[in-house]
Write a structure and sequence with these properties.
mainly alpha; three-stranded antiparallel sheet; elongated
Length: 306
């Protein structure tokens, strides 16, 4: 284990401290684990100076992580952690260039999102709740997640001042702000929540969504509340914030076919990230075609449809 007081460890801690101002807690925890593994590897290689870090060392480190069973997605994240650390080290003068830029990880499989069926989701959202302050708050969160396609971190980070009539201002990845529309159902749910928020919120608390203790609701608490509501309302599938975001994008794209607009609403820097939904929409269309077109359905040997 690398000494926490070593120059290598100190540089990693400085990088993580800077990262904490923009990254989500989940990303920060993952990067901390990845970089701890890197420090242990460098210590085993008797590397005690960042100037010795080169592409060959990075390849050996990532190769070792892959050999111990790290999944492609986790390996790609580990490489990203190393690369962002190297960029920090270049900026601080510890490195002349980023050696991780010369290293590639295996292509990871693209997992298509799994949206909730639009009618099933509508029935779920329309299911009455008990009217308690927590239930009113949860309804507002559910409606806003689906209405505006927010990430979990974006929802948790909202302040009262971010609500602007029919829009909401969110801080996306990389601390990039954007404004997204809020639908009428979400506005009604938010209005109901704002009417009773004071019964829970502590004095001076600016967070839009607060917990029993009166302070900002955390990521884990939001995930648990959504899963609890799914069980209570009889939704027979797992529900989490990102699944509502997937549903928002998929349902919007099915109706509008406007990929650029969906990209802007989701806050994707790259159109390629949004294009995964076009493949999902194609699957939906292909399934409808196979089910409806008389010349598309396969036939058994005896000539009857399958």
């Amino acid at each position: 284990m690398t000494d926490a007081a070593s120059p290598l460890a100190a540089a990693v801690e400085a990088f993580l401290a800077a990262l904490s101002r923009t990254a989500s807690p989940a990303t920060l925890d993952a990067y901390r684990r990845d970089l701890a593994a890197l420090l242990d590897f460098l210590d085993a290689q008797r590397v005690h100076d960042w100037h010795a870090l080169d592409a060959a060392l990075v390849r050996r480190f990532l190769g070792g992580e892959r050999a111990r069973g790290l999944a492609p997605r986790s390996l790609a994240r580990c490489r990203s952690a190393c690369s962002r650390l190297a960029d920090h080290l270049v900026a601080e003068g510890f490195l002349d260039h980023n050696p991780v830029a010369l290293v590639r990880t295996p292509r990871q499989p693209r997992h298509l999102p799994s949206p909730v069926d639009v009618d099933r989701l509508a029935r779920f959202l329309d299911t009455p709740h008990d009217g308690s302050p927590l239930a009113v708050r949860d309804q507002a969160m559910l409606e806003l997640l689906y209405s505006s396609g927010l990430r979990l971190a974006e929802l948790a980070g909202l302040d009262l001042a971010d609500l602007r009539g029919e829009r909401v201002r969110v801080l996306g990845k990389g601390a990039k702000p954007r404004q997204v529309p809020v639908g009428s159902r979400a506005r009604a749910a938010l209005s109901a929540w704002l009417g009773i928020r004071a019964t829970l919120a502590a004095d001076g608390e600016h967070a839009l969504f607060v917990g029993r203790g009166g302070h900002r609701l955390g990521h884990r608490a939001i995930q648990q509340r959504l899963a609890c509501e799914a069980r209570r309302r009889g939704l027979d599938e797992h529900l989490h914030p990102h699944r509502l975001r997937h549903s928002f994008a998929s349902h919007l794209l099915e109706s509008s076919q406007d990929l650029r607009a969906v990209q802007e609403l989701l806050g994707h820097a790259n159109l390629a990230t949004t294009q995964v939904y076009t493949r999902l929409d194609w699957q939906h269309l292909a399934a409808s075609y196979d089910a409806a077109h008389p010349r598309a359905r396969r036939r058994h040997d005896d000539g009857t449809p399958t």
